[in-house]
Design a protein that fits this description.
- By secondary structure, the protein is mainly beta.
- The protein is built from two helices and ten strands; from the N terminus they run βββββββαβββα.
- The strands form three sheets. Strands 7-4-9-8 form a four-stranded mixed beta sheet, sandwiched between helices.
- A hairpin with a 2-residue loop joins β8 and β9.
- The radius of gyration is 19 Å and the shape is elongated.
- The model has no long low-confidence stretch (mean pLDDT 94).
Length: 175
């Protein structure tokens, strides 16, 4: 089912005359409002320690509860990608991001409360303070550093994270 099918009423006036306009939008025949369905912005952090180990987390909640993940999450309103990744890393691990370098993005589908959210996941290489003081918080069950050679993308529960990890492992020697 296309995500627009799940929206039955105009968010501006409440009319039920809210119809598919094109593959990206719905239009209200009563008030003239056109709603464009765009992806939500999300961030993912690659955090390496001085032993070239990557910080990984175990998901505490669905989707993919119990699988490996990387720190990150949705961008809040009025927040830059850099601010969002710093906030998410702090919320999930307790550590401070000093610097973030944008690497690449991957489109994704993320199921939230039974609804498929289209996201654009932005991957950052992050430098952190106090990496030895990580502690799982928020929606993370545990977090720990793992040697790069032991990382297996198939152990990570979310498709975009698997794709991003594969891409990252190919560019690490160039960093």
């Amino acid at each position: 089912m296309h995500p627009l099918e799940q929206f039955k009423y105009c968010p501006k006036c409440g009319s039920s005359h809210f119809n598919i306009y094109n593959e990206k939008s719905k239009h209200c025949d009563d008030c003239g409002f056109t709603y464009y369905f765009n992806p939500s912005a999300a961030t993912v952090a690659f955090i390496l320690n001085n032993k070239m180990e990557l910080l990984v987390c175990r998901r505490a909640k669905n989707p993919a509860k119990g699988t490996l993940d990387l720190p990150g999450g949705f961008i809040d309103m009025y927040e830059t990608g850099e601010e969002g990744i710093a906030r998410e890393v702090k919320e999930e691990t307790g550590i401070e991001v000093n610097e973030s370098l944008y690497l690449f993005s991957i489109p994704n589908l993320y199921e939230y409360s039974g609804f498929l959210v289209h996201t654009l996941d932005m991957f950052f290489l992050c430098k952190v303070e106090n990496a030895n003081k990580i502690k799982a918080h928020d929606d993370v069950a545990e977090c720990f550093f793992m040697p790069l050679e032991k990382l297996k993308p198939e152990d990570f529960g979310l498709q975009s994270i698997r794709q991003g990890l594969e891409k990252f492992l190919n560019i690490v020697p160039k960093l």
